[in-house]
Design brief:
five-stranded parallel beta sheet, alpha/beta, 22 helices
Length: 575
């Protein structure tokens, strides 16, 4: 028998509003609308399908403050993560958002209306307090704090939703169960006890042994419930991971396990996130939930220390056990014993018995280099999937991002590099010069700081797409601002997949030389005031402090500079 939903009732808004969905869709055409962000889309899907029960909308101010301070909604029900709809002042003014107004919420992929929110209130969050209370510190090394600082808009809108339709998915549709569907599936199979396993990483033999052991000890079945929404930047993409999960499910005893995908936008909030994950799995019908060591932790903080203690998550889930009404299964670290060719919990291995392990870092190293991965660690089918998605370094794409003043020589270096890399062979080579990209991709943008930022964003997006496909990309914009260069690095590293190899090259040719040799007279025009916002004249050029290589055409020839860049790539095993 499936577990009771959190709060007692599964808030399936899709089913509740199905009889008026056509009417709501018609109404949505007459309403002001917001196009959701990727995170908001994930949140909306889990609000409307009941995964976030007892929520029926985005948090109002009273609920938000109580969740941040006390891990509870205003009515006292346990809920540890603020699920909010952020908007800008421009959104409020443009859409006339006010208490009582109705706003259509649109899917960012196809602009289909998914729901209508009836606004209860508009409020200004204390984002520093939210960071400290929810994530443990106002530290931008935490991905959700960085998101809170850079991407979350200044106001939150609270209000209940009416559901028009669920988001449409085109990938792994058969594995995308709603809570109602998964509960019905468990009932059909007569699964009375279900151990849920949360993951955002590929699974290997140790994970299979852990979950099978947990299920057998409790005479239960296993739900492999990986996150396929937003995870930690740099994680393996969900397409690769799902192919891995499908391969490893074949290794479970017949009838023991079920794979289902969870469209969750993770916050990497450690202890609070573990409680949240438990609530979500309870809503999906699970009776037991495996909580790992440093569950949903984001890694190191700005001081190089872990954000959370290794067992903080387990301790918080235990603290709220009576309210959660889902049994926590502590994650046991498994290790391989060559003498018996099996896995055992590390704390049950007798002293002196040989054990073998491969860390995540070592696994990534072996994937990059093409080194063998032993069958005691993973399965051939899993390794095959990973190797297809993560080829050896010399087959991966990369981005060479050249930044410097106008006429610093970066364009000449970029063109010479293109010829050299074409000669090397093995990859397609794309050249993205700043002015060319501006003309081809964004002729409507000017030269203000915001326009240049947008232009670099476009260059970074195109670069990430090309490098993910295995191309060598040479981009050579001026990019005078550090925030813009950081945006380019983050975009490539987060969206480039195996091609997320980014190298910042500062062409540090002195301003005097750039101006003296400027045949086109742009510096003269800038000094006369004919051109505004010109880097080096009336716009400062912020010298990069994180460049992977610094070059100067007054000190080195173009050939020497190109050779130094080729050596940089060879040092990183990319050639």
């Amino acid at each position: 028998m499936a577990n009771s939903p959190h709060g007692g009732v599964l808030k399936n808004l899709i089913a509740r509003d199905e009889h008026i969905s056509d009417q709501l869709k018609e109404e949505s055409l007459t309403l002001p609308y917001l196009i959701l962000t990727e995170r908001q889309l994930c949140d909306l899907e889990l609000i409307t399908n009941g995964g976030f029960s007892p929520l029926e909308g985005f948090l109002n101010e009273a609920d938000y403050k109580n969740v941040v301070d006390n891990l509870r909604l205003a009515n006292g029900v346990l809920f540890p993560i603020p699920v909010t709809l952020d908007v800008s002042q421009d959104d409020i003014d443009r859409l006339s958002i006010a208490p009582g107004s109705r706003v259509a919420l649109l899917d960012p992929r196809d602009e289909e209306a998914l729901a209508i929110i009836t606004v209860e209130d508009i409020y200004t969050p204390d984002r520093v307090k939210e960071a400290i209370q929810v994530f443990g510190a106002d530290d931008p090394a935490h991905p959700s704090v960085a998101y809170l600082r850079s991407k979350v808009k200044e106001f939150y809108v609270g209000g209940k939703l009416q559901a028009i339709k669920a988001p449409t998915h085109f990938d792994y549709v058969a594995l995308r169960y709603t809570p109602t569907e998964l509960r019905a599936h468990f009932k059909k199979l007569a699964w009375r006890k279900v151990v849920a396993f949360q993951t955002r990483n590929p699974m290997h033999r140790a994970h299979r042994e852990l979950t099978v052991r947990a299920a057998r000890q409790r005479q239960a079945n296993v739900l492999i419930h990986p996150v396929v929404g937003l995870t930690k930047p740099g994680d393996v993409d969900h397409y690769t991971r799902v192919r891995v999960y499908e391969a490893i499910m074949q290794k479970y005893p017949n009838g023991m396990g079920q794979l289902a995908l969870l469209p969750l936008a993770m916050r990497m909030a450690g202890p609070r996130e573990a409680v949240w994950h438990a609530i979500i799995r309870k809503n999906y019908g699970a009776t037991h939930f495996i909580v790992g060591r440093d569950h949903a932790g984001p890694g190191k903080n700005s001081q190089g220390k872990d954000f959370y203690g290794p067992y903080d998550a387990q301790d918080l889930v235990i603290k709220y056990h009576d309210e959660l009404q889902i049994e926590m299964v502590p994650f046991q670290q498994m290790t391989y014993l060559p003498s018996t060719d099996d896995y055992q919990p590390i704390d049950e291995v007798p002293k002196g018995v040989q054990t073998l392990d491969i860390s995540g870092t070592e696994l990534r190293k072996r994937l990059r280099s093409g080194a063998p991965i032993p069958d005691w660690f993973s399965y051939d089918a899993v390794v095959k999937v990973l190797r297809e998605s993560y080829p050896p370094r010399n087959k991966q794409g990369f981005v060479l991002f050249l930044t410097g003043l106008h006429n610093s020589g970066k364009d000449a270096i970029a063109k010479a590099l293109q010829v050299t890399l074409h000669q090397q062979g093995g990859r397609s080579v794309s050249l993205l010069l700043g002015d060319t990209i501006r003309q081809e991709l964004g002729s409507e943008t000017g030269f203000s700081a915001d326009d240049r930022h947008e232009n670099i964003h476009r260059i970074a997006f195109v670069s990430a797409e090309l490098s993910r496909a295995g191309a060598a990309v040479i981009a050579a914009p001026t990019a005078p601002q550090d925030r813009t260069r950081q945006l380019a690095r983050d975009t490539v590293q987060q969206s480039g997949g195996s091609g997320g190899n980014f190298f910042l090259i500062h062409v540090a040719t002195p301003l005097e030389h750039c101006e003296k040799t400027d045949r086109h007279g742009l510096y003269s025009r800038a000094r006369r005031g004919d051109i505004k916002g010109f880097a080096g004249v009336d716009e400062p050029y912020e010298t990069p402090e994180d460049a992977d290589l610094t070059v100067d055409v007054t000190q080195q020839s173009i050939s020497e500079i190109v050779h130094s860049i080729v050596l940089l790539l060879e040092t990183n095993s990319l050639l």
